[in-house]
Design the sequence.
């Protein structure tokens, strides 16, 4: 018996800047998890992942991450993914700096 597919987002790291990025429904990359496409069909998820893997000049290490619907868009379901939404942890800049303002 196969397991029920859990919703996913496609995530990777930006090749040039290293930031965590997410694939949108329009096929663009965003740095905001809530703007990512929440994929609820396994076949579509695999196709979106293949699209991301076909962009080695733009992204590094694309993969599917579990997510759930939220009031403002997809939300991470795992600690690791929630942590990645906050940006680098070694010093305050970018997302972390904006969060402290």
Sequence:
């Amino acid at each position: 018996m196969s397991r029920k597919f859990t919703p996913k987002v496609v995530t990777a790291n930006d090749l040039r800047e290293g930031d965590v990025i997410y694939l949108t429904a329009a096929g663009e990359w965003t740095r905001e998890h809530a703007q990512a496409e929440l994929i609820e069909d396994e076949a579509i998820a695999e196709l979106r992942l293949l699209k991301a893997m076909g962009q080695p000049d733009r992204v590094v290490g694309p993969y599917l991450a579990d997510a759930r619907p939220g009031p403002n868009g997809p939300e991470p379901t795992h600690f690791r993914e929630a942590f990645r939404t906050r940006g680098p942890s070694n010093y305050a800049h970018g997302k972390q700096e904006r969060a402290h303002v």
